[in-house]
Write a structure and sequence with these properties.
Largest interface: A-B, 24 and 30 residues
Number of strands of chain B: 10
Strand content of chain A: under 5%
Oligomer: heterodimer
CATH class of the largest domain in chain A: Mainly Alpha
Radius of gyration of chain B: 18 Å
Radius of gyration of chain A: 30 Å
Largest sheet of chain A: 2 strands, antiparallel
Number of strands of chain A: 6
Number of helices of chain A: 25
Structural class of chain B: alpha/beta
CATH superfamily of the largest domain in chain A: MetI-like
Distance between the termini of chain B: 34 Å
Shape of chain B: globular
Strand order of the largest sheet of chain A: 1-4
Largest sheet of chain B: 6 strands, mixed
CATH topology of the largest domain in chain A: MetI-like fold
Shape of chain A: globular
Order of helices and strands of chain B: EEEHEEHEHHHEHEHEEHH
Helix content of chain A: over 70%
Chain lengths: ~600, ~240
């Protein structure tokens, strides 16, 4: 009885009309379409057969990849310092887990859609195994064939995927109404990846005691030397996820502020911690840095709490100019470096403190921000000035995917604010700013990227004061960011032009200042409008990092196309260029495609407030 | 006591003269309706009052402050003068509540809680408190215009400008917006309304003006304006729209 009262009518389920009818309606609706169907099925099967044949042919030396995975990832980074890389990754993953858990919305996904995805994947693999060739031609002149897939193995694999397919179909039909938290599903997915690291075995190359290659290749698990750290990191990710969830349930507000700040700091930590191994001496830190930090913290406290008092605030102008003067004078004097920059920061603090610290709470926040940033600044300066203990063979400490990632990440992170500023400058009403920005954008855009890379590598030193020299990677990052900023500026400008005049007027009419109008009204809308071009620009920047090989950096593609195919000592991989290029292509695809998928989701979520 | 003084205000768009010397006084608490054919300069004139357009000759004095190029004066005047547009111009990326609290938080430096409390009060007053968490794109035209009025009122202005507030609305929705405006007029707000809603003018206005070709053609009480207009241009205008 009570059941009946609560039932709500559910929408009628769309009945599946049957395979025959679907085929007739979609593939064989007319003679022409029947011919097309047969033709394209033939072409698809033929194409896939030859592609699979290429992959599993005995001629392919996939050991070239598995043996060189470390070279691909970090190139020549010294093995004794790997622990620092792992700790850094752990730091980032831990932060990721916290953020994920803290912002987790208990979204549910039905088992129906999940199992449908699984069915799609399993049936594709099933189909591929079904059509895979059992023999491939290995000598085109003589027509010799080699068996690559035994029938018994084929049936064995078909059986496995058939069972998987059936079980996901069973889940889809029987448990369709069941739901699962999306977060747990994602944890499960990542967990499956980690399990795969242990279970999937690939052929690799090993040597005996007298350094002779062992044949045949033994099969070892995919990540032989890294599966333990990865498993540990997975546990860390899950643990921090639950900690984040717990913090969010306790409704601790400060986490909301600490998390973004930590994210802003991670790139700095990553760079200083991996790139350098600073020779910190504790006595120096204790006797020099710590007193400076405490001193500036105290001065900051006085400024924040007493500068906006009635008596002092009317002299604020003099404090601002005075502190600027002191900062300039000290900067030119031969004093300890730790004093120079903080004095400029003090000048900024004195200028903004009376306006920002207008309540007790904001004064406290400003004081915390001030102390933390002074401490970080001074420690970074100490780390940057001290000797680096890291020893790397070759010119650059970064190589392989690590280099690709660093250039792409910092290229995007630096070019974003610059691109936005350039776009605003180009649409500005001040003629000088507008002309400078336009000229810069046009200049950067009209010269090829490779030319700029050469420029950065060969000519940048002429434009810098003598004694100032940058590492090759830093130059590549600078050039990439400037180049990408020019394109980004044009994309953002497109977004700015799509904002109607009414929005500007409405912002003016409620009394917002120019800066508030841009940051609160115009930019959020403009950036939202240009997400698709920005995403495709980020993707192309990620791929364009492969061009840095031209100035002598060993990026992922360069290692795949030039380094490994020329390895003749030890494991002989001479001429394995096809395998390596294919691997690089798949690697790039994995990253760019997952990025594109992510951005589609972001776009969907932001679409809520659209007109 | 007059809160807005306009003395011989002139304005050109290129060679075209949009305002040919407008002189008027508006007293505190007065409701003024400006009508006229399109292109007569009525919108241009009220947009000059909060400096969305810049007048080139003459003087405009709002609440004792003269409008000049001084940014401080302009910002001070804008926070005393609320404006409602023909095309609403709500911020589409913010919720209704955020639309209303934005300026009080950033310009008036109110705390978020205070601003939200006031915003809910205003939404109550314009009759749509239940829409607070929605985005402007999810509301009907009449509801959007009422949010726009609430947004302007959130700054606690002394003067409200309405630039054809009902022209972009369906006939059914015009009434709900006019009701809000009537209530506002009765509460003693100084209002300048550019509109073709003659019913509103008859019922609420203290004075009605007719603009034509950049000039103030007629200025009268509503009774006189509709029943016994002074100029022939007004008679022609009324005969065309009534």
């Amino acid at each position: 009885m009570s059941d009946n009262l609560n039932t709500q009518e559910s929408p009628p389920e769309i009945q599946f009309a049957g395979v025959n009818r679907w085929l007739k309606e979609n593939l064989f609706s007319s003679t022409g379409s029947s011919i097309l169907t047969f033709l394209s099925v033939g072409v698809i099967i033929g194409l896939f057969r030859s592609i699979i044949g290429f992959f599993i042919s005995p001629e392919r030396e996939w050991t070239a990849i598995t043996y060189n995975l470390r070279l691909y990832m970090v190139q020549a980074y010294p093995e004794s310092d790997f622990i620092r890389v792992w700790i850094t990754i752990g730091l980032v993953l831990g932060l990721l887990g916290l953020t994920w858990g803290f912002n987790s919305v208990s979204e549910k996904v039905s088992l129906k859609s999940t199992s449908t995805t699984f069915m799609k994947v399993f049936s594709s693999i099933f189909f591929l195994i079904l059509i895979a060739p059992s023999t491939v031609v290995i000598d085109k002149v003589e027509g010799t064939e080699a068996e690559v897939l035994q029938q018994s193995l084929r049936f064995y694999l078909l059986g496995i995927f058939g069972i998987l397919l059936l079980s996901s179909y069973f889940i889809r039909t029987r448990l369709a109404k069941q739901e699962m938290a999306k977060d747990y599903l994602n944890i499960l997915y990542v967990g499956l990846l980690v399990v795969a690291l242990w279970l999937i075995k690939v052929p690799t190359v090993t040597f005996d005691s007298s350094n002779v290659r062992l044949d045949p290749d033994p099969y070892m698990s995919l990540a032989t030397s890294t599966k333990i750290p990865w498993t540990f990191l997975y546990v860390l990710l899950v643990a921090t996820f639950f900690i984040g969830k717990y913090l969010s349930s306790k409704n601790i507000k400060s986490v909301k502020r600490i998390l973004p700040a930590s994210w802003l700091l991670t790139p700095l930590v990553v760079v200083t911690w991996i790139y350098r191994k600073p020779d910190f001496t504790m006595t120096q830190i204790a006797t020099l840095d710590l007193p400076i930090i405490i001193g500036f913290s105290l001065i900051g406290y006085l400024v924040i709490n007493f500068l906006n008092s009635e008596k002092l605030v009317q002299y604020q102008r003099f404090f601002v100019y005075g502190s600027l003067l002191i900062a300039l004078v000290v900067f030119s004097l031969p004093v300890v470096r730790q004093l120079k920059l903080p004095l400029f920061m003090l000048w900024i603090l004195i200028s903004i403190a009376p306006t920002i610290a207008n309540s007790k709470e904001s004064a406290r926040n400003l004081f915390i921000v001030w102390t933390v940033s002074i401490a970080i600044l001074i420690l970074l300066m100490r780390g940057g000035a001290s000797e680096s203990l890291i020893v790397v063979p070759g010119s650059s400490i970064y190589g392989g995917f690590a280099l690709t990632w660093v250039i792409a990440f910092f290229g995007i992170a630096i070019s974003f604010p610059f691109g936005v500023i350039l776009a605003l400058g180009r649409t500005s009403t001040f003629p000088i700013i507008r002309i400078i920005c336009t000229a810069l954008i046009e200049l950067v855009r009209s010269v090829p990227f490779i030319t700029w890379l050469f420029f950065g590598s060969v000519m940048l030193t002429f434009f810098l004061p003598s004694g100032v020299e940058f590492d090759e990677v830093v130059r590549a990052v600078v050039v990439t960011s400037i180049f990408s900023a020019a394109y980004l500026a044009e994309n953002v400008r497109g977004g700015l032009q799509s904002i109607s005049k009414g929005q500007f007027e409405a912002a003016d009419a409620v009394g917002l200042s120019t800066l508030q109008r841009i940051s609160l009204i115009v930019m959020p809308q403009a950036l939202r409008a240009v997400i698709p071009p920005i995403v495709s620009q980020v993707i192309s920047l990620f791929k364009d990092t492969s061009l840095v090989a031209i100035v002598g950096l060993f990026d992922l593609l360069y290692i795949g196309s030039k380094v490994i195919p020329n390895q003749s000592q030890g494991a002989n991989f001479l001429g394995t260029i096809q395998e390596n290029i294919l691997f690089c292509a798949i690697f790039y695809w994995l990253f760019t495609y997952s990025f594109a998928r992510r951005s589609m989701k972001i776009e969907k979520r932001l679409g809520l407030g659209e007109r | 006591m007059s809160i807005i003084q306009s003395i011989d205000v002139k304005k050109w768009y290129g060679d075209f003269q949009a305002l040919k010397g407008i002189t008027m006084d508006i007293g505190e608490g007065e409701v003024l309706v400006i009508c006229g054919p399109s292109g007569s300069g009525k919108s241009t004139f009220i947009r000059c009052i909060n400096r969305l357009e810049q007048h080139q000759d003459g003087q405009i004095i709002v609440d004792g402050i003269e409008l000049t190029n001084d940014l401080k004066n302009i910002e001070a005047i804008r926070s005393e003068v609320g404006m409602v547009f023909q095309s609403f111009n709500l911020f589409p990326h913010l919720t209704v509540l955020q639309n209303i609290t934005l300026a009080p938080i950033w310009v008036r430096k109110k705390s978020k809680a205070d601003a939200e409390e006031k915003a809910m009060e205003l939404l109550e007053r314009v009759g749509i408190p239940e829409q607070a968490e929605k985005f402007p794109g999810q509301l009907s035209g009449g509801q959007q215009q009422r949010v726009a009025i609430a947004r302007a009122l959130a700054m606690e202005p002394k003067i409200m400008l309405f630039d054809e507030p009902t022209s972009a609305l369906d006939p059914e929705m015009i009434k709900e917006v006019l009701d809000v405006m009537k209530e506002l007029a009765q509460s003693g707000m100084t209002m300048i309304v550019v509109t073709h809603e003659m019913g509103f003018a008859k019922e609420v206005a203290d004075r009605v003006m007719l603009f034509d070709e950049g000039q103030l053609v007629e200025e009268n009480t509503p009774d006189e304006f509709f029943n016994n207009p002074k100029s022939d241009r007004t008679k022609l205008f009324l005969s065309q729209i009534l």
